């Protein structure tokens, strides 16, 4: 939808954000960029972006680079002032005490903020306990301390995760009490002099959660819950966030996390075997459904502060399976190709862990050694084996979520969606029932190619030519391998007492 068309419509949700000042964390992340684009369309007065310096690059320089680089900022090239006039950098770090905000910036935030959108998080599932607690738990607590002081605050929104409660097979839209006091854990992390010893027992502390990410997300929800009587709050729990469905552009994404990594790895011929149950529900959700759903839920929570405003933003009302998604993606084999691929896509799945581990030797490790030898012979630095170490770590992280099935209640989210006016449904599409999964799969493949792998659509035909050559080589290699199997089989038959193939065939026919 164009900016002109969006501006031509008046709606309750859009009017709620119009002229407001929004404090946004995680603005340089995947969801954060989408929040920026949508909020600017809504005509907010100002977006206060909490950003830190990174690798010697100032927050202002990082913001400029983001605006120029990302295709999701669809109006920046023609109207840069539309963004620059409404974006104000607040230098800080969500993982540091007090968020490391200067006194002047803190005064500005407290004086002007109307809405807090907290989407920053450490999304690395295998991060240390200390770093996960500092970012996901303490950072949320310190942000709430600031929000308490904002005299004009209308709502505090925390973007959590549906898997914050993945220790339960059925997750309701309500608060759950964790088995550890989050504030006590923060104190422990800050005061414990022997952090190495603490990390050593962190796995036991995290159980039964599968990783520090989901564990600390659950603790952060408890931190938010404890402030319910001091400010209107909303918690939105998306499942595995993927590329956009349509808003503001089709198939946009900017990271290899989760499902994006599986699709990109399979499409480039890197990921060839994956441990997954194809018949299980695929808990994925398009990013624009999450963004629009969060903004709509925040509007609802601001109007109904007394309610328990926890919203599961998942696909349970319109689900698909991992197998269906796999088939939708494989339908693009020979239609979409990638120049920067290791080999042709040969993606296989199994529900058995030990089978997957065994096949990784033949599908991943042996080819990796071969490719590295070729690179050495060409005078290049071998890197494929190192790449597969990362792939296997990535697979280990995802294994829990692709081999367990969850049921997420969505009654409260459905109530909000059904209560939207028609114009808001048009401007803020967030109804999962409207998603056509086969269409999503095709667009997701193309989006990963263009936005993640950086290959413009115009180069697809050139990539297909490479794909066809490699496919021919692949078939020839299979022919050689299967011929070797036949030879070995004949040798075994001969050793077993069958004199030759002709007599073996004759015996078989007689039998």
UniProtKB/TrEMBL annotation:
<keyword id="KW-1133">Transmembrane helix</keyword>
<dbReference type="GO" id="GO:0005777">
    <property type="term" value="C:peroxisome"/>
</dbReference>
<feature type="domain" description="Thioester reductase (TE)">
    <location>
        <begin position="24"/>
        <end position="292"/>
    </location>
</feature>
<dbReference type="GO" id="GO:0035336">
    <property type="term" value="P:long-chain fatty-acyl-CoA metabolic process"/>
</dbReference>
<keyword id="KW-0472">Membrane</keyword>
<feature type="transmembrane region" description="Helical">
    <location>
        <begin position="472"/>
        <end position="493"/>
    </location>
</feature>
<keyword id="KW-0560">Oxidoreductase</keyword>
<protein>
    <recommendedName>
        <fullName>Fatty acyl-CoA reductase</fullName>
        <ecNumber>1.2.1.84</ecNumber>
    </recommendedName>
</protein>
<dbReference type="InterPro" id="IPR026055">
    <property type="entry name" value="FAR"/>
</dbReference>
<comment type="similarity">
    <text>Belongs to the fatty acyl-CoA reductase family.</text>
</comment>
<keyword id="KW-0812">Transmembrane</keyword>
<dbReference type="InterPro" id="IPR036291">
    <property type="entry name" value="NAD(P)-bd_dom_sf"/>
</dbReference>
<comment type="function">
    <text>Catalyzes the reduction of fatty acyl-CoA to fatty alcohols.</text>
</comment>
<feature type="domain" description="Fatty acyl-CoA reductase C-terminal">
    <location>
        <begin position="363"/>
        <end position="455"/>
    </location>
</feature>
<dbReference type="InterPro" id="IPR013120">
    <property type="entry name" value="FAR_NAD-bd"/>
</dbReference>
<feature type="transmembrane region" description="Helical">
    <location>
        <begin position="352"/>
        <end position="374"/>
    </location>
</feature>
<keyword id="KW-0521">NADP</keyword>
<dbReference type="GO" id="GO:0080019">
    <property type="term" value="F:alcohol-forming very long-chain fatty acyl-CoA reductase activity"/>
</dbReference>
<dbReference type="Pfam" id="PF03015">
    <property type="entry name" value="Sterile"/>
</dbReference>
<keyword id="KW-0444">Lipid biosynthesis</keyword>
<dbReference type="InterPro" id="IPR033640">
    <property type="entry name" value="FAR_C"/>
</dbReference>
<dbReference type="Pfam" id="PF07993">
    <property type="entry name" value="NAD_binding_4"/>
</dbReference>
<dbReference type="GO" id="GO:0102965">
    <property type="term" value="F:alcohol-forming long-chain fatty acyl-CoA reductase activity"/>
</dbReference>
<keyword id="KW-0443">Lipid metabolism</keyword>
């Amino acid at each position: 939808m164009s900016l002109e068309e969006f501006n031509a419509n008046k709606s309750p949700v859009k009017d709620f954000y119009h002229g407001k000042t929004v404090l946004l964390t995680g603005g340089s992340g995947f969801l954060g960029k989408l929040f920026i684009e949508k909020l600017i369309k809504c005509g907010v007065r100002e977006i206060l972006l909490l950003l830190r310096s990174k690798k010697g690059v100032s927050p202002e320089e990082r913001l400029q680079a983001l605006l120029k680089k990302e295709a999701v900022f669809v109006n920046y090239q023609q109207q840069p002032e539309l963004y620059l006039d409404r974006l104000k950098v607040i230098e800080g770090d969500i993982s540091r005490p007090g968020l490391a905000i200067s006194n002047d910036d803190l005064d500005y935030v407290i004086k002007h903020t109307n809405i807090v959108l907290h989407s920053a998080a450490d999304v690395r599932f295998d991060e240390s306990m200390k770093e996960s607690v500092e970012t996901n738990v303490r950072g949320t607590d310190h942000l709430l301390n600031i929000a308490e002081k904002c005299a004009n605050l209308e709502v505090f929104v925390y973007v959590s995760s549906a898997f914050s409660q993945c220790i339960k097979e059925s997750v309701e839209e309500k608060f759950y009490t964790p088995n550890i006091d989050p504030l006590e854990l923060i104190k422990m992390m800050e005061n414990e002099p022997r952090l190495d010893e603490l990390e050593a027992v962190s796995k036991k502390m995290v159980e039964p959660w599968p990783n520090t990410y989901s564990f600390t997300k659950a603790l952060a929800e408890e931190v938010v819950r404890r402030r319910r009587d001091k400010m209107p709050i909303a918690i939105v729990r998306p499942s595995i966030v993927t590329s956009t469905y349509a808003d503001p552009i089709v198939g946009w994404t900017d990271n290899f996390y989760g499902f994006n990594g599986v699709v990109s790895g399979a499409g480039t011929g890197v990921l060839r075997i994956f441990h997954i149950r194809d018949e299980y529900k695929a808990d994925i959700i398009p990013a624009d459904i999450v963004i629009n759903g969060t903004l709509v839920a925040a509007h609802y929570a601001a109007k109904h502060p007394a309610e328990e405003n926890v919203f599961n933003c998942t696909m349970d009302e319109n689900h698909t399976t991992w197998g269906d998604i796999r088939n939708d993606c494989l339908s693009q084999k020979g239609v979409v190709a990638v120049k920067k691929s290791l080999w042709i896509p040969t993606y296989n799945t199994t529900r058995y862990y030990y089978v997957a581990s065994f096949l990784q030797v033949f599908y991943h490790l042996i080819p990796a050694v071969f490719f590295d030898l070729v690179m050495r012979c060409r005078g290049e630095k071998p890197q494929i084996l190192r790449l597969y170490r990362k792939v296997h770590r990535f697979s280990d992280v995802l294994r829990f979520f692709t081999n367990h099935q969850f049921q997420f209640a969505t009654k409260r989210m459905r109530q909000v969606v059904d209560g939207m006016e028609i114009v808001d449904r048009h401007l803020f599409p967030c109804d999962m029932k409207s998603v056509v999964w086969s269409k999503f799969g095709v667009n997701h493949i193309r989006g990963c190619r263009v936005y993640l792998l950086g290959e413009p659509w115009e180069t697809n035909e050139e990539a297909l030519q490479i794909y066809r050559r490699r496919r021919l080589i692949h078939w020839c290699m299979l022919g050689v391998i299967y011929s070797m199997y036949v030879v070995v089989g004949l040798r075994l038959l001969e050793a077993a007492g069958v004199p030759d193939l002709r007599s073996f065939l004759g015996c078989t026919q007689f039998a």
